[in-house]
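Final report, Chapter 2: Outcomes

The project's central promise was a pipeline that accepts a single protein chain and returns its three-dimensional structure in a standardized token representation, suitable for archiving and comparison. That pipeline is now operational. To close this chapter, we reproduce one record exactly as it appears in the project archive, with the input sequence first and the structure output second.
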Amino acid sequence: MIPVAIRAFNRPVMLDVTLKSVLASGVTPLVLDDCSDDPTTRAYLDTDDVITLPEPLEWPAHAAWEQRVGRLATVRALRGIAGRVEGATASERYGAQGAAFWAARYLFARFPDAEAVCMLESDCVVAPGWYEELCSVAAELAHVRRPDGDALGILSAYHRMRVQTAGRYAWREGRTFRGALDIGALAVLLTRTLFERAGDAFHRSWPVAAGGPDKQLIKCCWDAGCTIAALTPSRVQHIGFRSIADPTIPPPDAWLSEHFACPNAFAFEARTPERVAYSPEWT
């Protein structure tokens, strides 16, 4: 079993959408919180109350999104997840970059027998079967030797690489970071081989104000002699602040993956797992 966690910091509506989407796919994730300080998010994480949003969140409409992903209804209230979804809150604020490495540390400690862990950011939706495909491809590629590495380090379920392949995956070539046209850290499987080889990167301190972890995760994978691949087509779609929530940024620059096509991605029914309440960091 490959454990799954959603990395969270504020943005409770997007977190709720991500959680419901993952639950509807048949996967029960953990929620790992980087010391959210928004009162609504804290109520969402720390209680199981029905929380009325200060202002309803109206999701903007865009033809390309509605055709290829779907559209969410206006959100006016959320129900808290305490006592229903397992999770942890960090003992200190790590920032976007540091929180990714903390989450990996937490997962590998929490699941000592896991050969890999999967981390999702809290602003995405998943396609049916995403988890099964991720696990299957990871097993297939685990020990494939390539010029850039002798073991799989990262397998991404979301990418915007310009690839043409009829296969189930594509290798990420080269050592140049290509920004938006790369794999990103939205939905990544990290192997224990990478975690053990790149221990310094996973245990060092990162600036709280640093940007996202995308570039650093790729770099530590290169330096560890591990390979990077991505599912084709993408099985996860970003819905964050530079995508569906910002109608002023039109496609193709709105992070709508050319490789993702799941028109009913928002048509999920959340299950309510019997899980333990939030707990402080113990790693």
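Archive annotation: Confidence is low (pLDDT under 50) at residues 269-283.
This record, like all others produced under the grant, will remain available to the consortium after the project formally closes.
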